[in-house]
Amino acid sequence: HAGWFYVKLAFVVGLSAYHMALVGYSKALARGERRLSGKQLRLLNEVPGLAAAVIVIMVVLKPF
Asked: Does the first or last residue of the chain, that is N or C, have fewer Cβ atoms within 10 Å of its Cβ?
């Protein structure tokens, strides 16, 4: 009955890990290292919005 909670929790933890990874990338950028292209960065920009949408759906609808 609480499957929605675990899906939501997984997305929240994943979003936190994503944030930590981007903090590391921002430090690399500050050192002058650019490992990703502009297109890759634009795609990565969509991740938080999609994760937030899934989290909200899990909270409001509780589909599982």
From this structure: N
In the block, tokens 């795609």 appear at 43
- Six-digit token pair at 10? 């997984």
* Spatial contact of 51 and 11, defined as CB atoms under 8 Å apart: yes
pTM of model > 0.85: no
HSE-up (13 A, CA, CB side) for residue 19: 10
- pLDDT, tens digit (0-9, with 9 covering 90-100), for 18-47: 999 999 999 999 999 999 999 999 999 999
pLDDT band (50, 70, 90) for residue 55: confident
Closest CA to 58 of 16, 1, 20, 6: 6
Q: Amino acid letter at 17?
A: A
